[in-house]
Design goal:
With 95 residues, this protein is mainly β. 8% of the residues lie in helices and 32% in strands. The protein contains one helix and five strands, in the order E-E-H-E-E-E. It has a five-stranded mixed sheet, with no helix packed on it. A hairpin with a 7-residue loop joins strand 3 and strand 4. It is globular, with a radius of gyration of 13 Å. The N and C termini lie far apart (52 Å). The model has no long low-confidence stretch (mean pLDDT 93). Bound molecules: FE2/S2 (inorganic) cluster (FES). FE2/S2 (inorganic) cluster binds next to loops. It comes from Mucilaginibacter sabulilitoris. InterPro entries: 2Fe-2S_ferredoxin-like_sf (IPR036010), Beta-grasp_dom_sf (IPR012675).
Length: 95
């Protein structure tokens, strides 16, 4: 029996760069881990996903008609179909 992975594709934006991401459920524990694996922004996710530092903020914009933007801690976002076809901007940490 063959199994096919269900891929989830989205775009990460960081500084002036754009990164097309292709992943699947279970590849990473959360979005913070994926971002650190692909981009390694300095000082990003300092509390290792404990939800205490706010250095892992992202803005997620859907590509449907609403163009709604949601601000979240990436360590609290799992890799799911909700990320598919969105643009996710890594926000600068302002202390
Ligand atoms: S890694 Fe610290 S709040 Fe997300």
């Amino acid at each position: 029996m063959m199994f096919f992975k269900h891929y989830i594709e989205f775009t990460l934006l960081y500084n002036d760069e754009s990164y097309r991401i292709k992943t699947f459920k279970g590849e990473y524990d959360d979005l913070r881990e994926l971002i650190n694996d692909h981009i390694q922004p300095p000082n990003f996710g300092r509390c290792d996903g404990m939800g205490r530092c706010a250095t892992c903020m992202v803005a997620q914009q859907s590509r449907n008609l609403s163009n709604k933007v949601e601000i979240s801690l990436s360590c609290q976002l799992s890799i799911s179909d909700e990320l598919a076809n969105t643009e996710i901007r890594i926000l600068p940490y302002i202390s």
